[in-house]
Design goal:
Low-confidence stretches: none
Largest sheet: none
Strand content: under 5%
Structural class: mainly alpha
Distance between the termini: 64 Å
CATH topology: Fumarate Reductase Cytochrome B subunit
CATH architecture: Up-down Bundle
CATH class: Mainly Alpha
Number of domains: 1
Order of helices and strands: HHHHHHHHH
Shape: globular
Number of strands: 0
């Protein structure tokens, strides 16, 4: 039997990807359960009734919200090579070759972050009383539903394309618990201190002046999370 070629993924990528993935999948599952109980306009499945399902869904949504910023920062800095590249359009016309599939995979890796951000943002804007009161026509609830549907489609494509470009070794690498010496958590305190010591206004301005697509995306997504917290606080006050 041919031995599988090992693919190594950075430990922080696996950590942040795993946390966001687990919490998001749990939120998607319980979110459909919430829809099944309180909405069901496009069909229902005979699930058991769970009294606190809306609170359970909200808890997983909050966990995903908390894990999301770290994943965004890593993805748009250390994980740039896994995202859409400047040569996307040039390579995309070469249909069917390995580079075309890899290009599509990188595009989906980037695209999937957007509906997740929209789902988290719209979830913060919702009121817990809407669904029990059958108030189903609110804009934020509609956006929340559409975001989860778009995210589900992107997630399916993400898994299928990962299998296409990397096969079983790539799929297994993301759940591998081993890490190399340079990825050891023992170095994290030192790296964190070095990162904080490097933050100065001049450094930030230099970074912003040289910013490109990835930096703008990172700032936009993180700012949207902060804005959602501010708007949610005003809504509850």
């Amino acid at each position: 039997m041919q031995k599988l070629h090992r693919v190594y993924q950075p430990f922080l990528l696996r950590l942040f990807h795993g946390l966001v993935g687990i919490f998001t999948l749990a939120a998607m599952t319980t979110g459909f359960w919430v829809y099944n109980v309180f909405d069901g306009r496009w069909g229902r499945i005979n699930f058991a009734f769970v009294t606190d399902i809306q609170e359970i869904h909200g808890s997983f949504g909050i966990l995903s919200f908390l894990a999301f910023p770290s994943f965004v920062v890593y993805a748009f800095r250390k994980g740039q090579k896994r995202l859409v590249q400047p040569y996307f359009l040039r390579t995309f016309v070469q249909f069917g070759c390995r580079g075309w599939w890899l290009n599509l995979h990188q595009a989906i890796n980037t695209l999937i972050i957007i509906p997740l951000a929209l789902a988290l943002f719209s979830g913060q804007m919702m009121d817990g009383s809407w669904l029990p009161n059958r108030e189903l026509d609110h804009f934020w609830y509609s956006l929340h539903i559409l975001s989860w549907l778009f995210l589900s489609l992107c997630l399916i494509l993400h898994i299928l394309l990962s299998a296409k470009v990397g096969g079983t070794p790539l799929l297994l690498s993301i759940v591998n618990l081993r890490f190399s010496a340079k990825d050891s958590p023992a170095y994290w305190p030192y790296n964190i201190r070095r990162w904080f010591n490097s933050i100065r206004s001049a450094t930030i301005m230099a970074w912003w002046n040289s910013a490109g697509f990835y930096q703008y995306m990172e700032v936009t997504l993180l700012s949207s999370m902060v804005l959602s917290l501010i708007l949610s606080a005003f809504h509850e006050s």
